[in-house]
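Researcher: Sequence recovery benchmark, item below. Answer with residues only.
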């Protein structure tokens, strides 16, 4: 599952749990209803201010809205150049 899909699932679940429509959530958060639909489908990942508006409108913390979304840093590797498979311009 992608970050957008996880966020969308969280948003949809919390909205339904609150008993409000996408349109009502959009109004409370100062967003357009189509934006809520895009976010719930995972078609878009919100900026931090949008996520904060949504969390506040749902009466939850950002941590609740971001549940299940984590970052795990990769191993450090020395950089290097590699020739591409495609030759020429």
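Model:
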């Amino acid at each position: 599952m992608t970050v957008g899909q996880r966020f969308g699932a969280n948003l949809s679940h919390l909205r339904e749990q609150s008993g409000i429509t996408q349109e009502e959530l959009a109004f409370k958060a100062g967003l357009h209803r189509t934006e809520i639909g895009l976010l719930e489908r995972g078609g878009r990942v919100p900026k931090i201010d949008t996520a904060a508006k949504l969390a506040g409108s749902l009466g939850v913390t950002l941590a609740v809205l971001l549940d299940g979304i984590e970052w795990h840093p990769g191993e450090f590797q020395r950089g290097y150049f590699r020739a591409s498979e495609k030759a020429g311009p």
